[in-house]
Amino acid sequence: MTDPFQNVDAGGTDFVVAVANALEARAQEPVMVKIVDDYLDLIPYPPGGTHIEVGAGTGVIARRLAARATNGQVISTDPSLGLVAAGQELGADISNLSFEVADGGSLRFDDGSIDTVLFHTVLSHVPDPSILLAEAARVLRPGGMLVVCDADFEKTSLSNFQGDPLDMCAKYFAENFVTDKYLVSKLRGLVANAGFYLTSFDMTSRLITHGDGGMVWVGMGGQNMVNAGQIGPQLAEAMVEEYHRRKENGSLYGHLPFATLVAQR
Ligand SMILES: C[S@@+](CC[C@H](N)C(=O)[O-])C[C@H]1O[C@@H](n2cnc3c(N)ncnc32)[C@H](O)[C@@H]1O
Fold first, then answer.
1. Is 104 close to ligand 1, i.e. is its CB under 6 Å away?
2. Which of 82, 192, 241, 263 has a CA-to-CA distance to 14 between 20 and 30 Å?
3. Element housing 120 (H / E)
4. What is the per-residue pLDDT for 137?
5. Is 194 close to ligand 1, i.e. is its CB under 6 Å away?
6. Ligand 1 neighbourhood includes 6 CB (under 6 angstroms)
7. Whether 132 contacts 186, CB under 8 Å
8. How far are the Cα atoms of 4, 54, 164, 178 from residue 123, in angstroms, in the given order?
């Protein structure tokens, strides 16, 4: 199966809404708030600067970037018309934030015209991340900042014991809803090859012990197995129930490492 994040709109309206809700919810998790705050602390906000997020979805991170870059402009770009439309509503009252439909491999900006390019969980969802990194290098001014935050999906886990069915859902998600689950291991080389100088590369654990963060794996993964005729709807529902049972009795234990790379043009 092709990673549905390569073309979110093709999944239909229900999928667009589910993705929009999942992205908005993920960004509110305390660990994700900290990951984003930490990298937003590392970049300068020059007066009149232009900062772009590529593959921004609903722009939930771009909104936070705009709150920092009050003396500049933030442009939230994504190829999905549905996600951009949702983002435009959510960010309507933020004066220094605008939204555009764009593929990260072909941006409209002039060479050397941008201060910051941000990719937050995008490069693991594209067939050739070097194309998007080359485009980022083109539009960034010399000294401009590149921020890449992505999940090390190869290590996705929702496992409490050997053969745990919830872990099967997490692994299924990493296999079928991600284009390159090994992206993070290749990231430093890709960035260097695109002409950037690495400033920092760090890893943070996204632990899932509360909330519905891991439900994306169980819900979307399970539904996909049903659609593919691999399991019946009863089993998918039972796995969702099991997720909630663990959430309520304090035994929920999901884990996904997130890497943050900062580099300079
Ligand atoms: C997991 S979502 C992340 C969205 C957002 N950055 C966030 O973290 O909330 C991946 C995003 O990558 C976008 N995407 C997929 N292919 C892309 C491409 N070629 N160029 C730019 N964005 C792309 C998808 O439309 C989707 O919104």
1. yes
2. 241
3. strand 114-120
4. 98
5. no
6. yes
7. no
8. 14, 10, 29, 10
160 residue type, one letter: N
pLDDT, tens digit, 9 for 90 and up, residues 39-85: 999 999 999 999 999 999 999 999 999 999 999 999 999 999 999 99
Contacts of 31 (CB under 8 A, 6+ apart): 204, 205, 206, 207
> Cα dihedral sign for 177, 184, 209, 21?
negative
Q: What residue ranges of the chain have pLDDT lower than 70?
A: none
The residue whose CA is least distant from atom 3 of ligand 1 is: 121
One-letter amino acid identity for 187?
L
Q: What is the pLDDT of residue 1?
A: 78
Angle at 42 between CA 69 and CA 38, to 5 degrees: 95
Using a 6 Å cutoff on CB, does residue 79 contact ligand 1? yes
Domain boundaries, the chain: 4-152+179-207+258-264
Using CA atoms, how far apart are residues 83 and 17, in angstroms rounded to an integer? 8
Pocket test for ligand 1, best of 109, 122, 131, 132 (most atoms within 8 A of CB): 122
Which letter, b or e, does each residue of 123-135 get, where b requires 16 or more Cβ atoms within 10 Å of its Cβ?
bbbbeebbebbeb
Q: Does domain 4-152+179-207+258-264 have CATH number 3.40.50.150?
A: yes
Q: Which atom of ligand 1 is nearest to the CA of 55?
A: 22
CB 181 within 8 A of CB 154: yes
Model pTM score: 0.96
